[in-house]
Amino acid sequence: AQSVAQPEDQVNVAEGNPLTVKCTYSVSGNPYLFWYVQYPNRGLQFLLKYITGDNLVKGSYGFEAEFNKSQTSFHLKKPSALVSDSALYFCAVKGSNDYKLSFGAGTTVTVRA
Amino acid sequence: DARVTQTPRHKVTEMGQEVTMRCQPILGHNTVFWYRQTMMQGLELLAYFRNRAPLDDSGMPKDRFSAEMPDATLATLKIQPSEPRDSAVYFCASGTGTGVYEQYFGPGTRLTVT
After folding, report:
1. Which residue, B22, B25, B40, B95, has most beta carbons within 10 Å?
2. CA–CA min distance A45, chain B (Å)
3. How far apart are alpha carbons B14 and B18 in whole angstroms?
């Protein structure tokens, strides 16, 4: 079985400060990892994915994520947060032979001006 | 800019009525997913289609929910009869179904059953 944990329900940061949203996963075999963002009353938008290769993955809107196999983590990061980054963020994982994505419960990010 | 479209965006109905939600996947995508999002349960996978064939609908209450793909450009999710506990946001997502692919989500249908 595969699963994702997002240990923080909420993350609050000041604009201009670094933003980190944590994610740990459990999956059989090699993991395929994803981050999605959901703005109010909108669907989920794909941010980035890790398949293989470089552990640091760059995505949309200045976000990046670092894959750490030993810690089974895939934390989302942004060096300098914007107020417009305030949204709900989902981490997701699937195994290499799976079609199902398992989503975390989501982390609400609030960036204050 | 290709997008998944869903109709209606909002639906309010009375308990016992039939509800039909529609999804148009991105052209060329051959996989379609239906999800339900609630505060309590988060995102739940209801059904999965590949090349229009239903491969997994284990997440759906079988007695009242049904999902179909009449053609490659249309996926439908029906609830009959609807119940208040079905109130949620229903998302459709599509993907290319080859290799490692991300899913592209539609804007969702917000269903309220009174």
Report:
1. B25
2. 7
3. 9
Q: Are B25 and B75 in contact (CB under 8 A)?
A: yes
> Which candidate in A9, A44, A60, A98 is best for mutational testing of the B interface (most B CBs within 10 A)?
A44
**Which positions in chain A touch B56 (Cβ < 8 Å)?**
99-100
Q: Is B107 on the interface with A (CB under 8 A)?
A: yes
Dihedral angle computed from the Cα positions of residues B90, A98, A31 and A47, in that order, rounded to the nearest 10 degrees:
-30
Interacting residues of A69 by C-beta distance below 8 A, sequence separation 6+: A55
Q: What are the pLDDT digits (tens) for A10-60?
A: 999 999 999 999 999 999 888 999 999 999 888 999 999 999 889 999 999
Contact B67, B48 (CB under 8 A): no
Residues B30-84 have pLDDT tens digits of 899 999 999 888 899 999 999 999 988 888 988 999 999 999 999 999 999 999 9
Minimal C-alpha gap between B79 and chain A (Å) = 21
Contact B102 A103 (CB under 8 A): no
> Which residues of chain A lie closer than 8 angstroms to B45, CB-CB?
100-101
**CA atoms in the 13 A half-sphere facing the CB of A77:** 13
Tokens of B94: 């599509």
CB of B56 within 8 Å of a chain A CB? The answer is yes
Phi and psi at A64, nearest 5°, equal -145, 165
Cα–Cα dist A29/A64, whole Å: 23
- pLDDT for the residue B100: 59
If you search the block for the tokens 């148009």, which residue do you land on?
B24
